[in-house]
């Protein structure tokens, strides 16, 4: 074999890393549970191409796939060779919008406002009947607090359809993200897709978007990766309790890091290392402690920083995101700070 042919063969092997799994997910789940039927068994390096439904179960065609509101999940995906103590490295290659409508809650959630303010307000229903979302068949019984949004796929924007403000144009650039991602936690627990923990869950973190890699601890053989809850756009904290809820086209490549020893989730993108602290239930201080502690460990273990240097770097270059007011914090270190040599 000539040297040139050898180089071409190696290059082609690098381009085709593994098998591609195109999954038509016709069933969705509301729990992170390893007893759910497996959608696909994959090997490290394989690609998953699939679609998610929105937080109420509507898919890209406006067909409701579940009858229960609350972040239906796509998956689980069984990762061959993964064992407790390992970590899944989920590379988010494509997180794309696939329909022209979404919806969100109409008011800031009570956990983000003071008691004194809430006591002075009497909120009438936004609508007298269940709000129409995508079309006549898309509505949620008993909900009068939802507002519809128009998604412009060509311009990559979102715009509130109604009500219309007299003061400001409610139109913003779209920035799609996955609100939920994770695996079943240790033991026999099967948490719903609403809370969060060291397994992941409903983190609603705007950095879990195209181009990022999410590192997730494995607690059971196979991992059982699940994700969903697409948002077309969302601000820090998810103050209204939702993003612009919609369905998404998703393409991920899943790798495996053996004996990773993670205690919480991590995210890496072009610019930042991010440790995630999850503590559901109005406990942002605890979430901050989890995120900061993990970042110290990350800088010590993988970047060789002295403990004092890790503390100082976080103290003077660190950034904090209130990912979700309900209990998720991101501790961020810019990669540019790690590139400096003495």
- Category by helix and strand content: alpha+beta
Helix count? Answer: 5
Helix % is 10-25%
Radius of gyration: 21 Å
Biggest β-sheet: strands ordered side by side in the sheet: 1-3-15-5-13-16-17-19-18
**Main beta sheet, described?**
9 strands, mixed
**What is the CA-CA span between the terminal residues?**
45 Å
As a percent range, the share of strand residues is 25-35%
The counted number of beta strands is 19
What is this structure's SSE topology?
Layout: H1 3-15, E1 20-22, E2 40-42, E3 46-52, E4 73-79, E5 87-97, E6 101-105, H2 115-119, E7 146-152, E8 157-160, E9 171-173, E10 177-182, E11 196-197, E12 200-202, E13 213-217, E14 223-231, E15 248-257, E16 266-268, E17 272-278, H3 284-303, H4 307-317, E18 319-324, E19 328-334, H5 335-338
Parallel strand pairs: 1-3, 2-4
Antiparallel strand pairs: 3-15, 4-14, 5-13, 5-15, 6-7, 7-8, 8-9, 10-12, 10-14, 11-12, 13-16, 16-17, 17-19, 18-19
Question: What structural keywords apply?
Answer:
globular; disordered N terminus; 9-stranded mixed beta sheet; 342 residues; 19 strands
């Amino acid at each position: 074999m000539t040297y040139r042919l050898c180089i071409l063969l190696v290059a082609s092997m690098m381009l085709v890393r593994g098998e591609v799994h195109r999954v038509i997910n016709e069933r969705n789940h509301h729990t992170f549970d390893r007893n759910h039927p497996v959608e696909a068994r994959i090997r490290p390096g394989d690609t998953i191409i699939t679609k998610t439904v929105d937080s109420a179960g509507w898919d890209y065609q406006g067909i409701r796939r579940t009858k229960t509101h609350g972040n239906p999940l796509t998956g689980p995906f069984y990762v061959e060779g993964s064992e407790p103590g390992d970590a899944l490295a989920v590379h988010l290659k494509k997180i794309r919008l696939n329909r022209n409508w979404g919806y969100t809650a109409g008011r800031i959630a009570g956990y983000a406002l003071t008691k004194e303010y809430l006591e002075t307000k009497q909120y009438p229903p936004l609508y007298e009947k269940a709000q129409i979302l995508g079309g006549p068949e898309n509505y949620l019984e008993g909900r009068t607090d939802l507002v519809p949004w128009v998604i412009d796929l060509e311009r990559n924007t979102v715009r509130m359809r109604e009500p219309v403000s007299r003061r400001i144009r409610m139109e913003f650039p779209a920035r799609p993200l996955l609100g939920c991602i994770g695996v079943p936690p240790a033991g026999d627990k099967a948490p719903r897709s609403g809370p969060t923990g060291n397994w992941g869950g409903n983190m609603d973190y705007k950095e879990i978007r195209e181009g990022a890699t999410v590192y997730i601890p494995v607690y059971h053989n196979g991992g059982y990766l699940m994700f969903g809850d697409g948002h077309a756009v969302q601000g820090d904290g998810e103050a209204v309790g939702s993003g612009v809820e919609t369905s998404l086209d998703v393409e991920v490549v899943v790798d495996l890091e053996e004996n990773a020893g993670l205690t919480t989730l991590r995210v890496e993108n072009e610019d930042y290392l991010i440790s995630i602290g999850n503590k559901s239930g109005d406990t942002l201080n605890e979430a901050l402690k989890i995120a900061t502690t993990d970042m110290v460990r990350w800088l010590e273990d993988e970047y060789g920083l002295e403990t004092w240097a890790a503390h100082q770097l976080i103290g003077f270059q660190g950034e904090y995101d209130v990912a979700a007011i309900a209990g998720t914090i991101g501790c961020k270190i810019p990669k540019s700070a790690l590139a400096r040599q003495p």
